[in-house]
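re: ur msg from earlier - yeah i can do the LSKVBQAA complex, just paste it... oh wait u already did. ok heres what im feeding in:
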Amino acid sequence: MAEQRGDEPGTADAREGGRDAGEPRRRSARPEETRAWEDLVAAARRTVADGLVVGTSGNVSVRVGETVLVTPSGVPYDRLTPDDVTGVGLDGRQVLGTLVPTSELPMHLAVYRTTDARAVVHTHAVHATAVSTLVSELPLIHYMAAALGGPVRVAPYATYGTDELAENMLRALVGRSGCLLRNHGTVTHGTTLAQAYDRTAQLEWMCRLWLTAASVPGHAPSLLSREQLTEVEERLRDYGQRG
Ligand SMILES: C[C@H](O)[C@@H](O)[C@@H](O)C(=O)COP(=O)(O)O
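and the outut:
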């Protein structure tokens, strides 16, 4: 996929420093946005290193105040620099940078407009995507589904980057912090980027687990009940270190 950089002639964003005629000038990044951008780029690079995406697939965003920093569309993550900071308002208007924001902006903004999320991670993780083609809900193969709010739903297929996909995703996310997108991938959110990322990793791991167990000939995996999951949900509130 071609890169879209504002400093290259012939690209959409070379028009007018990335602005449509009549749009206000974009502002400079604030120090907290610059720091958040560094973390965002590191997380995006990690999705490739961890095998959750290939090439420029997937996208990551973080909310800083009323601004949503997002990975730009079709730019390899290892080429992103501090100067590439890309940000939009909750209304989708670009306020930072000249690179074209991710094509999945409708999904990211839909999450921020309807939840208290501060980070969203979208991947094409292979086991999760495989599961999205087989079931409408990930069977309760492991209690870590509780960390995502319950059984993980699969959002019906819609073309990437569309409002329809964002609407399907929102329905699948009700009461959950992650879902699968049919024939597409994963979406998770969290109150921190680390939490959103960890939820993606857990989701991919659970999908891999289910595919592994379900593929043993002559055996059907045992599944957990909703009651068992609720018990874990309560227990997880005290999980880890206190203070
Ligand atoms: C065609 C894209 O890969 C699309 O599938 C999208 O979902 C994606 O993962 C990456 O798009 P961007 O580079 O626009 O963030």
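cool cool. Confidence is low (pLDDT under 50) at residues 1-18. ping me if u need the other ligands too
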